[in-house]
Structures are given as C-alpha cells and as structure tokens.
C-alpha cells in the first residue's frame, strides 16, 4: 500500500520533472538531451554489444560518483575482459564525466524516473546481469523491480551521513523496504556501515573509499605546477565553491583587504560560471577566465576556473584550497582529490557529507578546520607564505591520500562471486 501511494506521487509529479529539465537545459543543454529516457523510453538505444561477459550496470548520479566509478569500472574491465557496461546518470556533469569512461559497445543513458512503469521498461530493455549503485542512490521502485526481476542490486562505496540517516528514518515506512531489498552493501567506513544496518541494509563489508584510488591526471597536474611557478604571489583556491560562498569570500576580503594573495575560484556547478564572474567584477575585482587562457593564466585579481575535467590542473596551480560547500551549511565536497594532488585543504565547519574523510584528514594534518572564511584566511596565509611550512603540509596531504588506498581491490573481491555467477 505504501509503495503504491509513493508510486502514484512519483507518477503525478512527472510534468514538474519535465518542466525542471526544460529550465535547466537553458543553461546546461545536456538536460534537454534524450529526455524520454528519463521516463523509461529507450527506443533506438541498443543494449550494450554482446561480448560473452556479464552486462554490468553502474549508476553514478553526478560528477563525484562518476569519478569514483571510474576506478571501479577500470578494475572490473581488467577482471572481466568481456564485460559490457551500461552507465546511467542523473545530472549533466555526471554524464559529461561518464562519457570519457565508455569503450566501444558500451551504452550510456539517463537513470529512469522512479515509477514502476519506467523502471520496468529500463530493466526489460537492458536486462543487466547486476546493478551497482554508487554511494547513496537508493530508489524504492527500482529496488523492488530488481528484486522481482532477480537482478542483484548493490550499493557500493556506500556512505550515510547522520543527517541522511535521520531523514531516512523519518521516511522508514518507505525507505525500510528499499534498503532491505538491496542485495548487498559495501560501505566506506564502519560508521557508514552502522547507519546503513540500522536502516535495514545488508552490509557485507567495509571496503573504504574508492576516491582514494583515483590517480590525478599527471599532465594536467604538471601543467598547473608550471603555471604556479609563474605567479609571484601565493595562490589560494576556492575549490568547488557553492552558491553564496563566493559572496562570503568577498565579505571576508573586504574586512582583510590587504592580503597578498592570488585567488583561484572554481565553482562546483558550470551553470554558475558567468554569474560568479559577474559577481566579482561587480565589486571591483578583475577576473581572468580559464577558458581564455592559452599558455598561462592572465593577470587578474581572480582567476576563474570555468572548465570541466581540469581539477588536477587547478590543484597543481594552487598552494592551498578552501573546501567548497563547507563554509555554507551544504555538507562540503570531496577533499580526497586535492590531497592526492598534494594540495592541502582548509575547510569550514560544515562537512557532514564527507564527515569521516574530513575528520581523518584533520587528524593527519592534511586539512585545517576553520570556523568561517575569515578564520580560514588567517590560518592559511602564514602557511602559504612560508615555503618550508607549505612543503610539509603538502607532503602530509599526499601521504594521507596514499595511506588509504585499496578500496578498489576490496570492492572487486566482494563483488567477484556475484558478477561471475
């Protein structure tokens, strides 16, 4: 009865979903691409080419999940040379990143909206051997349909914050059966595992975080470091900044106007690039955008990272990075990639989406915790202005990221029997 009421609600809001997609497509045209796939219509989309191996469906909703999926997909290909990949997403940034992971014969489509009809059409069309959901994506109708179709559906690299657990508990009349219906769960940490078990999930193992196993693009990282050598001022980066945080930075700089700093701001969402540039320009900062650079950054108060797929370049260019999403109450962003590039992190008080990684980094000395952006500036300036001190924290950040590798191997070992059955 509960699932039927949920299904009715999801069916009724479909016109609103279509309207939201149209609006988002104005700034991000990818949202207007193949819209009918989101409602389970895959006419003209072939199943992944047959190759004798299993058809593995990987769902990576957005950019961060897709980056984590990249290392697992590569390991799955090595372990299953004939595997066929079905890759699904929910966001434009996830799709753009995911397209770089495809091989000949793979298929990439949108995740179906969670109505019984849409998910049934999805499963009937593609008939995956197994489904791997990255990190947090658990949808009641999809889980129920996979149980009926006997498709093992697994949550891998799984995380569950305290905030998300509280929300799931409030909806336990719906979420309980969804978590219980998962074939298995591979959690990032013991804390994640405990929260997921409390929601009814079968947690097979704690395997660690796949993002520690991602290797930064060496060419981009080296290019960023070469560009850094051309700056006569320390470079402080605002990495994956979220809406409202750039204004918070401007307000902090007004109270500390004489900082000898080169600013590099990389917004989390590409649809905000123009707005962020206009915001800084409106208060008197000159802005140079990455999209206009040729051989080196151009002179300006603020360098704006308005490109996708170049985070290693930006972390190489920066001496330290402020963690976006952590200064506003948004839960923070992934800080592991920065550490893997040898870029120490300065984070605000809000890191609940990545609580365990943030605590580990802070304990290891790879990240600094700050009360707000003014506090962040006060703590960062002495470090980036002191060459030996900066080199020490760079080494600490890199060593911390390397010490926690191995999640891909453990995940693969946990999945091997299931995928080979």
Structure, described:
- The protein is α/β, with parallel strands linked by helices and 421 residues long.
- Helix content is 46%, strand content 15%.
- The chain is built from 18 helices and 14 strands.
- The strands form 2 sheets. It has a 7-stranded parallel beta sheet, with helices on both faces. Strands 10-11-9-8-12-13-14 form a 7-stranded parallel beta sheet, sandwiched between helices.
- The longest helix has 17 residues, at 63-79.
Task: Sum up the structure in keywords.
globular, seven-stranded parallel sheet, alpha/beta, 46% helix, Rossmann fold, single chain, 421 residues
Short summary:
With 421 residues, the chain is of the alpha/beta class. It has helices at residues 2-12, 14-27, 63-79, 92-98, 116-126, 140-149, 162-170, 172-181, 190-198, 218-229, 245-255, 273-282, 311-317, 336-340, 355-364, 373-384, 387-403, 407-419, and strands at residues 55-59, 84-89, 107-110, 130-134, 153-158, 184-187, 203-206, 235-241, 262-267, 287-289, 302-304, 320-323, 345-347, 367-369.
What percent of residues adopt helix (DSSP H or I)?
Answer: 40-55%
Which band does the percent of strand residues land in? 5-15%
Q: Which CATH class of the largest domain applies here?
A: Alpha Beta
Nearest-integer average pLDDT? 93
Q: What is the count of helical runs?
A: 18
Largest sheet: 7 strands, parallel
The CATH homologous superfamily of the largest domain is named 3-Deoxy-D-manno-octulosonic-acid transferase, N-terminal domain
Radius of gyration of CA atoms, rounded to a whole number = 22 Å
Q: CATH architecture of the largest domain, please?
A: 3-Layer(aba) Sandwich
Distance between the termini: 34 Å
Q: Which shape, going by the Cα principal axes?
A: globular
Q: Please mark out the parts with pLDDT under 50 across 5 or more consecutive residues, or reply none.
A: none
Side by side, the strands of the main sheet go 3-2-1-4-5-6-7
Number of domains: 2
CATH topology grouping of the largest domain: Rossmann fold
Beta strand count: 14
Which structural class matches the secondary elements? alpha/beta
